[in-house]
Design brief:
single chain, 718 residues, alpha/beta, TIM Barrel, Immunoglobulin-like, eight-stranded parallel barrel, disordered C terminus
Length: 718
């Protein structure tokens, strides 16, 4: 029993242990009273309620001596229940601290966690007096101290980054070399087999799908499914304990930190996929878990002339109120927490256009961007936007501020269309291969602003992209109505699994075409985790609810899957070895430094330079892109010019073989073939085509040639 209650401090918000006790602070501008509820364990009844009588700038606070890490707690907040004015206070419902650093337990949908009696459409206008305590997760006071030893962020330049989008559980759940008790956890991702795989693959950063504590939706539970992806956040500060091998009473925090520390030691950065555009409380008929009961009009965008309802720019029921200072503070505090306390290296912002909506339109100079730009901590990490939402005017590719990189949806669409041999893709493909200067150069950004991808968690895997003409999401229980329509006709004659050797050969080559295009384009490549080992979701392009072997990585690698892995490793190693394949600046298609040489030359199959008329016609399906390695316009750490090999990239998306006349190398050397998507195990340099000769590109294939420099001339004898 707590006997001494001191006034405490309004900041920092949340529960903060200082070695002698814990300070509790909760923001609520419209509350009439706030009670702190203490528990002996997550399943017990309340042992004590403490009224927070101190209030400073709308923050209710108290200091409790003797309260230590492991203490379980929650809040009850009193005030008006008047939904038509946007007020939904209900002290019968236990609430999660928005700043809680760990949560114990999960929501029980069978308990009365809704603030109104379930019934007809107007039920949300009435108060439900049932206590929700048995159905609610509880907050945990955590120990902030951790032995980081000499941990330092790798700080890999974005231009040199290769991002691997990965699901914590899916990556390790079936890995036979990881101890069973660690599979599917943060510790599993940090285990020796997992780290060795990532190192050998060659990626520089893992982009973790959401790890903030999130909710399994009732509609999914009723179908016997789960929220697998995690884009339904309940609490932004708590690493979800479902990925913890250390329990849910605080151990998940230390386990996450240990994972980051291990990955950093191997030079691998950790980027978090974060969901600040909405929460798991849904619309006006959703449950009361946290923000809704603490201060509904502060935290949520309400319909201006009918605040009973929520603005919804994400299709999930609500949108956070980015116009309110407390919400901006919450997000900035949260970003700084994950950087400073959890040591993460960057963030990918889900549906980021929503965060820019100060009024209705997307405003690229919104307060959210202004605050991040001036923040000395947040502005220094990797900031990646998913630059769209479902609201009007929500597609904002190329329109984010200078500090930001963006998922380049135009890159994905163009590359897919090109390899499907669609008409009119040539000019757009030129931009995508060279860093999308049409999107990013005009505002001072560089090719690294373009996060290039062909596949991601949302959509087909690479295997399914070339194996299915239409989505097959029947397992989701929505009669295949969910998920985007990714309708492709690859002219392979059969959909799904097949034993036809011709079809299999074409599919395998298309996979290699996509991976090669991705890793040989300027910008920052992002690989959808598992594509390199041919991960198969049976045509399900919206597997958000499939927490089962359909989405878990299958580590039983056949020879064809091992071949694809080796090919991917070779591509990554090649990219990392050659600055000409990952330039920091955009190409200049004109003479450089007073020489007749150009950065880049676009070639026809007869080895002559393409004309403007051919670019505009857009029907050419086989092109060459020659990259001069002597015109990088970059210097190394010593200030000396960077010089690299020159490369010739040849692409043939046509359904027939095409002979390409080999041009003379730009710097007097000789060409060698280093990548051939028709021969994945080709030894680099084993093929040396003669200048002026013909080099065959089989149907739908890609070749990369490297100029091998001539040996230096011997000094004349004396």
């Amino acid at each position: 029993m707590i006997r001494t209650i001191l006034p405490g401090r309004p900041f920092p918000q949340g529960a903060t242990w200082d070695g002698t006790g814990t300070n509790f602070a909760l923001f609520s501008e419209n509350a009439a009273k706030v009670e702190l509820c203490l528990f002996d364990d997550p399943c017990s009844e309340e042992t004590q309620r403490v009224e927070l009588i101190e209030q400073t700038a709308h923050v209710w606070h108290a200091f409790l001596p003797g309260v230590h890490p492991g203490q379980i707690y929650g809040y009850r907040v009193y005030g008006l229940f008047d939904p038509e004015r946007g007020l939904r206070f209900n002290p019968n419902k236990l609430l999660i601290d928005p700043y809680a650093k760990a949560l114990a337990g999960k929501v029980n949908w069978n308990e009365p966690i809704f603030p109104y009696p379930l019934g007809n459409g107007d039920a949300d206008l009435m108060v439900d007096a049932s206590d929700s305590v048995r159905g609610m997760p509880k907050c945990v006071v955590v120990n902030p101290y951790f032995d980081w030893d000499t941990d330092r962020p790798p700080k890999t330049p974005l231009s040199e980054s290769i991002i691997y989008e990965v699901h914590v559980k899916g990556f390790t759940k079936c890995h036979p070399e990881i101890p069973e008790e660690l599979r599917g956890t943060y510790a599993g991702l940090a285990s020796r087999p997992a780290v060795e795989y990532l190192k050998k693959l060659g990626i520089t950063a893992v982009e973790l799908m959401p790890v903030h504590d999130f909710l399994d939706d009732k509609i999914l539970i009723d179908r016997g499914l789960r929220n697998y992806w995690g884009y339904n956040t309940t609490n932004f500060f708590s690493p979800d304990a479902r990925y913890s091998s250390s329990g849910d009473t605080g151990g998940q925090v230390a386990e996450f930190k240990a994972m980051v520390k291990t990955l950093h030691r191997e030079g691998i950065e950790v980027i978090l996929d974060v969901v600040y555009n909405h929460t798991s409380e849904g619309n006006h008929l959703g449950p009361m878990l946290s923000f809704r009961g603490i201060d509904n009009p502060t935290y949520y965008r309400l319909v201006p002339d009918n605040p009973r309802y929520y603005m919804d720019y994400t299709g999930t029921g609500n949108s956070l109120n980015m116009r309110h200072p407390q919400v901006l503070k919450l997000i900035m505090d949260n970003l700084r927490y994950w950087i400073l306390e959890m040591h993460v290296d960057g963030f990918r912002f889900d549906l980021a256009a929503t965060l820019a909506r100060e009024l209705h339109d997307v405003d690229r100079l919104s307060a959210f961007f202004d605050i991040i730009h001036q923040d000395p901590v947040i502005s220094q990490v990797k900031l990646i936007a998913e630059p769209w939402d479902v609201g009007e005017g929500g597609y904002q590719v190329g329109k984010f501020p200078v500090l930001w990189a963006e998922w380049n949806g135009k890159y994905r669409d163009t590359v897919r269309r090109y390899w499907k041999s669609d008409e009119g893709q040539l000019s757009d493909l030129g931009y995508r291969l060279t860093g999308s200067s049409d999107l990013y150069q005009r505002d001072g950004r560089r090719p690294s602003a373009s996060i290039n991808f062909v596949t991601a968690h949302d959509g087909f895997t690479l295997h399914d992209l070339v194996s299915y003409n239409e989505k097959h999401n029947e397992a989701n229980g929505e009669e295949n109505r969910d998920g985007a329509n990714e309708n492709y006709s690859w002219n392979f004659g059969v959909e799904g699994d097949t034993d036809d050797p011709v079809v299999l050969t074409l599919r395998e080559r298309q996979k290699r075409n996509f991976l090669s295009t991705l890793l040989l384009s300027q910008g920052v490549p992002m690989i959808c985790g598992g594509d390199e080992i041919d991960r198969d979701q049976k045509g399900n392009n919206n597997a958000y609810c499939q927490d089962n072997p359909l989405t878990w990585y299958d580590w039983n690698l056949s020879e064809s899957r091992q071949s694809l892995l080796r090919f991917t490793q070779k591509l990554i190693a090649l990219r990392r070895s050659h600055p000409n394949l990952r330039r920091r600046k955009f190409y200049q298609d004109r003479a450089i430094r007073g020489t007749p040489q150009k950065d880049i030359v676009w070639l026809r199959t007869d080895a002559t330079e393409m004309t403007d008329e051919e670019w505009n016609a857009g029907w050419v399906r086989c092109i060459g892109m020659m990259l001069n390695g002597h015109t990088l316009q970059e210097v190394d750490e010593s200030g000396l010019p960077v010089i690299d090999n020159s490369f010739l990239l040849l692409l043939n998306c046509h359904h027939e073989h095409i002979d390409f006349r080999v041009p003379a190398p730009p710097n007097g050397g000789t060409w060698s073939v280093v990548i051939d998507t028709n021969e994945p195990d080709l030894e680099p340099g084993s093929t040396r085509p003669a200048s002026g000769g013909l080099l065959r590109l089989v149907r739908q294939s890609l070749l990369l040639l490297r100029e091998e420099e001539p040996p230096p001339m011997s000094a004349p004898g004396k």
